[in-house]
Amino acid sequence: MREKNVREIKVTDYQDIYVLNQEFNPNLKLFSEEKVKEKIEIIIKKTKDIIFVYEHNNEVIGYIHGSPYELLFSDPLVNVLGFVVKEKYRNQGLGSILIECLEQWGKNNGFSGIKLLSHPSRVYAHRFYERRGYMFTKDQKNFIKKFNSYM
Questions:
Q1: Which structural domains are found in the chain, ordered by start?
Q2: Rounded distance, CA 101 to CA 106, Å?
Q3: Residue 26: is its pLDDT beyond 70?
Q4: Following DSSP, what letter does each residue of 102-130 receive, concatenated?
Q5: How far apart are CA 32 and CA 25, in angstroms?
Q6: Concatenated DSSP letters of 68-85
Q7: Which of 112, 131, 133, 141 would be a feasible disulfide site paired with 75, CB 3.0-4.6 Å?
Q8: Dihedrals φ, ψ of 115, to 5°?
Q9: Angle at which helices 14-24 and 33-46 cross, to 10°
Q10: What residues does the N-acetyltransferase domain cover (predicted)?
């Protein structure tokens, strides 16, 4: 696996991203291919987020989504909002390449580090992050409130 296969996301990647999301969490199937396409368009046009994809044989087989993260009590960080590698390509260095690209982007753009959340059950992912110098800081519960009026 090589770094030259990494590039920024394009709207035309939406089908591959949809498939990766399904593989990561089958419950995401309710979020249609068309919605994924719309989200990519919004992220590219209206945010400062960065999404790197790894392409192999004209197929996106992994991605990492970073978002600038400003707080009133911390130097700026990049928040990892999504990080998926197609299962059959895991443990081949692809995840390392993607996260290194995001880390370099963060350094080049004046961020102090990277923050990410990982589900407690994802023990292999935790080992991956720890090997890369990420430190476990706390357990927490995540809450969400859905608005009925959302279209």
A1: 3-131 (3.40.630.30)
A2: 9
A3: yes
A4: HHHHHHHTT---EEE---TT-HHHHHHHH
A5: 13
A6: EEEETTEEEEEEEEEEEE
A7: 112
A8: -120, 140
A9: 110
A10: 4-151
3 state DSSP class of 25: coil
pLDDT in tens, 87-121: 999 999 999 999 999 999 999 999 999 999 888 88
Bin 65: left if φ > 0, else alpha if -120 < ψ < 50, else beta.
beta
Whats the size of the chain, residue-wise?
A: 151
Closest CA to 16 of 54, 67, 50, 45: 54
**Residue whose tokens read 């961020």:** 111
Residue bearing tokens 């963060």: 106
CB-side neighbour CA atoms (13 Å) of 90:
12
